[in-house]
Specification:
A: four-stranded antiparallel sheet; 4 strands; B: mainly alpha; Arc Repressor Mutant, subunit A; 78% helix
Chain lengths: 235, 166
């Protein structure tokens, strides 16, 4: 190795020779440092070269230190230039969706699967708790903007038992004019409450309930109308 | 920025000065370097040391500044720099001052050799960092420094200083 050092120098430098400067400055990794240490112990020529390198190292530092430092002018110029710069916009944080996507992208598939399972379990648990609470509090009154069960009870739907105006299904004669139908509706204080399905109109008479006899009389009168072919009770 | 400037400006200045060889230009250079850093702070990815990033910017700015100079002027300066050193050996040899001779010869190295010597010995940059700053492969970094040292030894020999290597 000792003998080869000079020969190598005349041709191509060896790896060890090329690494010597970094060994001297302590910037080699541990493996290369160990390799160079071992080579230096074995090779006196290499050790001599290393001594020369240490001189170069010291004098390069000396040379650079002699260069002094920049004047205040450089600093003033820099900070004047910075002051003249337009205000820097604050670094925009990425969109929330991008950050969320980034967060999930960083997770390993295993972690992601575990998190999803845990989330599903939490949802089921939550649903169970809500169900139990609802069952326990069935009688609890509630209030919304439009409805309060704390107020005196009022029917939410029309009372089917309450008296209603009478209704009938009527079929008019085929050649009946609209004006004749309008006149009939007017006379009977009736209104059409459903369209002509199969030629039948559902009519409601007046706005008060009638007893059975009164309604039967109404139906007879209706059936006697020239323009009415058929009138049946549609209560 | 003040902290960053306070911590690095001297080394940035010295590295720039060794490249451009003009104090005024070197001072302008550090203002430009730190202003660039101020503008591009968001682009610093933190993959390398801040000083490595700064030196890479400095080198780029210095080379741009050198290119801006007239070619003739540059050639004259380079020639003068080398001439000065070659004139010196007698004086240096008389003084028998190896250290001074070494420093003189260091200044006579070519910019390519000089910058790599500075980066390794003064700025204490690793092979990888020098490769990043100079923009060359790591193996080229190693061989370039080796030949820079060989050149330095040749200059010293010409100045009458024998160091036993090579």
């Amino acid at each position: 190795m000792m003998a080869t050092s000079k020969k190598v120098l005349e041709q191509e430098p060896s790896d060890m020779e090329m690494l010597l400067p970094w060994h001297a400055t302590g910037t080699l990794n541990a493996r290369d440092t160990r390799r160079v240490d071992e080579a230096l112990l074995r090779d006196a020529e290499l050790a001599k070269q290393y001594a020369v390198i240490r001189e170069e190292y010291a004098e390069t530092i000396h040379l650079n230190e002699e260069l002094g430092a920049p004047s205040l002018r450089a600093m003033q110029k820099l900070f004047a230039a910075i002051d003249a710069e337009p205000a820097q916009a604050p670094a925009r944080s990425p969109a929330i969706s991008a950050r969320i996507a980034g967060f999930f992208a960083k997770l390993s598939p295993r972690t992601l699967a575990f998190s999803a399972g845990l989330g599903a379990l939490a949802l089921l648990l939550q649903a169970g708790v809500i169900g139990v609470v609802l069952l326990k509090n069935q009688n609890v009154q509630y209030e919304t903007a439009s409805l309060s069960t704390n107020e005196p009870s009022q029917p939410l739907t029309r009372d089917l038992a309450a008296p209603m105006p009478p209704r009938a299904l009527v079929r008019f004669a085929p050649d009946t004019r609209i004006s004749d139908i309008a006149a009939l509706l007017d006379r009977y204080q009736a209104s059409v409450i459903d369209g002509a399905r199969g030629g039948l109109f559902r009519l409601q008479f007046g706005n008060r309930a009638m007893d059975r006899d009164e309604f039967a009389g109404l139906m007879r009168k209706l059936q006697s109308e020239k323009i009415v072919n058929l009138a049946v009770d549609a209560q | 920025m003040q902290v960053l400037y306070g911590r690095h400006h001297v080394r940035v200045f010295r590295f720039g000065l060794r490249l451009v060889r003009d104090e005024q230009v070197a001072e302008d250079l550090i203002s430009e370097v730190f202003l660039d850093v101020w503008r591009q702070a968001g682009k610093f990815e933190g993959r390398s040391a801040v000083s490595t990033w700064l030196l890479a910017i400095t080198r780029f700015k210095a080379l741009s500044a050198l290119r801006r100079r007239k070619d003739a002027e540059l050639d004259d300066e380079a020639a003068n720099a080398i001439e000065d050193t070659s004139d010196d050996p007698e004086v240096v040899a008389q003084k028998k001052d190896t250290s001074e001779a070494l420093r003189k010869c260091l200044t006579a190295l070519s910019p390519e050799h000089g910058e790599i010597v500075d980066l390794v010995y003064y700025h204490e940059k690793s092979v990888e960092e020098v490769a990043e700053i100079v923009g060359i492969p790591e193996n080229t970094v190693k061989t370039r420094l080796f030949y820079a040292r060989k050149k330095l030894a040749g200059l010293l020999k010409a100045a009458g200083v024998e160091r036993g290597w090579p």
